[in-house]
Structure formats: C-alpha cells, structure tokens
C-alpha cells in the first residue's frame, strides 16, 4: 500500500474552489436547451424500441438466434432505463423541461426498487453524506466491508460471497437497502418505523415480479419458460452491469472516506472537495458513457447530480483542470483496471487488518482535510 500526501487547502482556497465549481455549474444550467431535450427524447425512443424488439423476438424463442437477439435487446433496454434514463431523471436532471413523463417526482423505473425509497436513500442520504463513515450507507450497502474505517469482524470473511450475490441480485439489494437492516439488527431502528418503506417495497416488488415472470411470459403462450428465462437473463445482465459501474465509481483504489468530525460545518468548497476525493471515473468511448448513464463520470456526477449527465463528458476536462490547479487527484482509469481494483479491495477487506500487518481501523495519517491518500 502506497501513501502520498494531499496538499492542505486554506480557507481562502476552499472558498475559491467552491466559487469556481459553482460558476461551472451555473454556466451549464444557463446553457441547457434544445440539444439536451432532443438527447433525452432520443434515448427514451431507443430504449422503448429495444424493449419492443426484445419482447417481440422472445415470441420466437424456440429459435435460438431469436432468443439471443431478444435477450440482448431487452438487456440493453433495461440498462438504458436504469442508468441513463431512470437514475438521471429521478435526480431531477430534466425537471426544467416540465414534461410529466420525465419529472423526478412522477417517474418510476423498470426495477423492483420503489422510486420514492430510492430517492431518499440515494439522492438525499448518499449525495448529502457522500463517503462519510457512519452516515453514507452506500459504503458497503450495509452488507460489505469496503473501507478500513469499518471495524472488521468475522462476518466480513464472506465479503466476496456477499459481493457476488449483491451483483447478481442488485435490483433487490437496492430495494432492500432502504430497510436499513443493519440498524434493525443493532436495535437502532424499530420494525414499526419501516412500515411505509415496506409497503412501497411490497407493492413495487409484486408488480415488477408479475410483469417480468408471469405476464410477459404468459403472453408468449407455449414459449412461457423460454420468455421467463429471457427476462431473468436480461435482469441479470442489467444487475451485473449496474453493480460494476456503480462500484467502479465509488470503491476503487484511491477513493477516500471521511469522518463525521472532519466534515462537520463544512463549507461549499469543502463539500465539493469531498465529492472529488470520494469518487472515481472510468475512461471509455461515447457508447460506453451512455450505457453507464454517464456514471463513468462519477466525479462530475457527485459534484453536479442535478445537471443532465450528457454534460459530464463536456465539463470533465475543466473539472480535471480545477483538480490540478489545487493539487487534488482526479481518479480515473479504464474499466478493467477500476473493476480489478474494486474486487481486490473486496477480497483484501474480507480479512482482518492484522493479517496484512496493519493496526485495526483507518491507516495512520488518513484523518483531516489534508489527509493521506490511500492506495490499495
């Protein structure tokens, strides 16, 4: 493990950083218009076309090539719905269009996770308390150990197994995330407090399950089982892809976490600082970025979650230049590199810190706004 020091920014530098990024955000908002509107309508059109094609081809599922093509089209449709449409629309990125179909308060996506629950745990909890240990429940999703600051216990020996299961059933993991199971087990939260959350989970989960595994398979008559298998496969593909992209943006080597103490009373510039150091990007081409919902630009997304994600590749060079100006790292790398780093961390943190010759808890020198950069 290598350790490099980050520069300590003064109050004046933090204030300057905040102003520069606020100005960048405002310039993008002022420039929103027809090109952004056309883009999201085009993506929705492609997504719906692929879904119709996929479901239509599954009617001919007895012919293997048709089944493969149908599953491929349906998988891409589900990925677009989840990543570039659902996630971004529910962030309010297109509320300015005043189109009810793309309004964050009305939109719901093609997964078992209820939109209202997700917006609370993701838009509010995660994006407010990004990478703050004890506050951001996306650090490990209440299941995994993804940071040295999470105290090790024997349960974490199963880290790789839990990660594999979460990847395969990711939409269900996202749905259950709002139950805050770890707080129920510890007694911090009462079962009765989850009533509204459970009701929404039940309603959405039943609706989605009937749609994917009963209604659409039944519509294909004698092809019921092959259609059911096709729908399950498309869901699996979407789950694995979403898990991979999201984990590569949050947990590869070099991404930092923070304590509640060091983030108390943080300024706007300090909040931006935390977003930049607590995120990572993935390099790739235009199609890769679209398929990732532009979460391949996780740094830009954490800085500006409410501007259309199609703008992230455009502003990325300017964000990177700002990082360089203040001596801050801009964590980016290829998909295979970032993914390998994530899975290395999952395996490494399954074992106690003493196994690696380290004292328990965060490595020395990692606390404070000029804290050391941790690299696996």
Could you explain the architecture of this structure?
- The protein has one domain (1-376).
- 56% of the residues lie in helices and 3% in strands.
- It contains 14 helices and 4 strands.
- The chain has helices at 11-31, 34-57, 64-89, 115-128, 159-168, 170-177, 181-186, 195-219, 224-250, 268-277, 286-291, 298-303, 312-325, 335-348; strands at 2-5, 281-282, 332-333, 372-375.
- The longest helix has 27 residues, at 224-250.
- The protein is globular and about 70 Å long.
- The model is unreliable at 363-376 (pLDDT under 50).
What's a quick, concise take on this entry?
Keywords: Membrane, Transmembrane, Transmembrane helix. This is Acyl-CoA desaturase. The chain has 14 helices and 4 strands.
Q: Report the structural category.
A: mainly alpha
Radius of gyration: 21 Å
Q: How many independent structural domains? A: 1
- The best one-word shape is globular
Largest sheet: 2 strands, antiparallel
Count of helical segments?
Answer: 14
Query: Percent of residues in helical segments?
Result: 55-70%
Overall mean pLDDT score?
91
Strand ordering within the main sheet? 1-4
**What is the number of E strands?**
4
Q: Report how far apart the termini are.
A: 5 Å
Low-confidence stretches: 363-376
Strand content: under 5%
Order of helices and strands: EHHHHHHHHHHEHHHEHE
